[in-house]
From TrEMBL:
Cofactor: binding comment: Binds 1 zinc ion per subunit.
Cofactors required: Zn(2+)
Protein name: 6-carboxy-5,6,7,8-tetrahydropterin synthase
Keyword Lyase in annotation: yes
Naturally occurring in which organism (per UniProt): Streptococcus dentapri
This enzyme's EC code(s): 4.-.-.-
SUPFAM superfamilies: Tetrahydrobiopterin biosynthesis enzymes-like
Keywords of the record: Lyase, Metal-binding, Queuosine biosynthesis, Zinc
Catalytic activity: 7,8-dihydroneopterin 3'-triphosphate + H2O = 6-carboxy-5,6,7,8-tetrahydropterin + triphosphate + acetaldehyde + 2 H(+)
C-alpha cells in the first residue's frame, strides 16, 4: 500500500517524498541479434540481423527515498532475464518457439520483465517498445494485457 508523505519521515522528522501520485520510469537498452521469419514472403525470411533498441517502462508509487523504481534495478532485470537470450543471439534458437517478429518479441519481453518485478508499492508494467530499425517499432501496453 502507498504511504503518504506524512507517513514517511527521516531522522529529522521531514519527508523525502513530494509526489503522492503514480509515476512512470523507463530505461532504454540496445542489443544486436539475428533472426529469420517464418511464413513471410520477403527479405526477412532469410537470416538477417538488427541492432534493436528496447524501452521498458514501469510505474508505481514512491518509496521512502522518493524513487518509483531504481533504474539500476531495471538494468539488473535486463541483464539477468533478457540480455542472455537476446544480445548477440540467434533469436529463433534462444527464445521460446515463436515467429520472431517484433510483435512477438515485444510481448515476450513484457511478460518476462513483468514476472521479475517486485510485489510492492503497486509497481507494474506500463509498456515495452522495441525498435527493430531506427524508424520501426512494436509496442505492448499494460491495458492491452487486461483486454
Amino acid at each position: 500500500m502507498f504511504l503518504s508523505p506524512k507517513e514517511i519521515k527521516t531522522e529529522t522528522g521531514q519527508s523525502l517524498l513530494y509526489c503522492p501520485h503514480r509515476i512512470q520510469v523507463s530505461k532504454e537498452f540496445t542489443f544486436d541479434a539475428a533472426h529469420h521469419l517464418f511464413q513471410y514472403d520477403g527479405k526477412c525470411k532469410s537470416l538477417h540481423g538488427h541492432t534493436y533498441r528496447l524501452e521498458i517502462a514501469v510505474s508505481g508509487f514512491l518509496d521512502q527515498r522518493g524513487l518509483t523504481y531504481d533504474f539500476g534495478e531495471l538494468k539488473a532485470i535486463y541483464q539477468s532475464q533478457l540480455e542472455p537470450k537476446l544480445d548477440h543471439r540467434y533469436l529463433n534458437e534462444s527464445l521460446p518457439y515463436m515467429n520472431t517478429t517484433a510483435e512477438n518479441l515485444v510481448y515476450w519481453i513484457y511478460k518476462t520483465v513483468e514476472a521479475a518485478l517486485p510485489n510492492e508499492r503497486q509497481i507494474q508494467m506500463e509498456h515495452v517498445r522495441l525498435y527493430e530499425t531506427p524508424t520501426s517499432y512494436a509496442e505492448f501496453r499494460r491495458e492491452w494485457d487486461e483486454e
